[in-house]
Amino acid sequence: MWKIYRIILLWICVILIDLIVNAEGSDEELVYVQAVWRHGDRAPTKLPYPNDEYKETSWPRGWGEITNVGIMQMYELGQFFRTRYASFITNYNGEDVTMISSKSNRTIASALAVLRGFFPASGQEVWLGNEQWQPIPFQIATTNAMLKPTSFDCLKYELETEKENEMLVRNINKKYANFFEFLANVTGFKMVDFKKAASLYNIQREIDHNMTQPAWVYQTWSQFDNETTIDIIKNLKRIYRISKFNSSQKARLRGGLLMEDWISRAKNVSLGLPVTPRKIKLHSAHDGTLLALMYALGVGNNLLIPYASCAIMEIYKKTNNHTTVKFFYKNGTTVYQLALPGCPSVDNCTITQVAKAVSGRTVRSLQQLNEICSSASSGYIATGFLTIGYFNTPSVAAMMKINIRNMAHDHISNVWKDLSNS
């Protein structure tokens, strides 16, 4: 008899604990979601190296286009959203959900695949037999500034990044001099440096698609801890890519516009003001978009962004009308909740605390970004442009020409003309 009482008592305790846990979890309600992802698996944007045997015909949709693997990755991301937000939104409604994509084909295709997984047609939405696909509209960005920031011309960013990374580039080129010479010989490039070696990461895309590689790709290097050629290339790619975002200024100039967009919308939600869309804002973008955003948030992890990875901001309203935000990062397979600097805990962070934490890494508008990007012009040109050696790099030289040509002020253009004719 005593054993029966003990079992009953144990079950009562389990039920009470469950009720307590549920009660604690029910004091908040999801009221808004913002998400941005990297597109799915894609082909290289061009021939990885001159001697590469795999030409564009090896990729069914052509250079830079999404692959079948990538389409499935994005479809599964859409299914992830459908499952995660099943109690928040069920069917598509244009007032509740909007999506915007960068201008790239691979992000547009990714957006379509996500929408197919997120909002399959059901009931009265079905328009063709058993077909579950339904046409769902989305927007395409007219500028690269927010969703493909690495393709947005910004003189200030180029100059400061060039200066900040100068020592890193010099050290890498020195450390890997013999390795780079080897790469030049086997790839057919006339010369290989840090940047060129990082671009050979495209070989990994071929490996991922079971394309047989020459022996040199897997050659080991005793001076580099017996790593293979491709492993060294992948690490160089990581270092090179991260070096474009890993400071407050870099993060601001590349991710500040999207960060401000998210913060502004979250503030309006917390104040109970109307927002567009009403429930979910989605962004189909690139690895650079996510890297810039994560470093702007102060949660960069010095790793590359895998295909179909996603950053999510969820906004909750508690029973006391207190609003909190939570950030998550899905790296293709696993979902991590992010701890933001300046927040007391991952589950108790207000939008005010987030805004304060990122205040120096946001940009209010495209106009402000353009002003910041061109603000380096007058200072650098007037005082430092004559030091030609500092600017004697292809990226900075190109950016100088592009931005100077587009300067709004005539007197700056005249300075350039005078310098060009001297």
TrEMBL record:
Q: Which domain of life is it from?
A: Eukaryota
Could you say which residues form the signal peptide?
Answer: 1-25
Key words of the record: Signal
For this chain, one GO molecular function annotation is:
acid phosphatase activity
Recorded hits in InterPro entries, A to Z, give: Acid_Pase_AS (IPR033379), His_Pase_clade-2 (IPR000560), His_PPase_superfam (IPR029033), Histidine_acid_phosphatase (IPR050645)
The record's catalysed reaction(s) read: a phosphate monoester + H2O = an alcohol + phosphate
Record-linked PANTHER family: ACID PHOSPHATASE 5-RELATED, ACID PHOSPHATASE-RELATED
Give the UniProt family note: Belongs to the histidine acid phosphatase family.
Report what the protein is called: Acid phosphatase
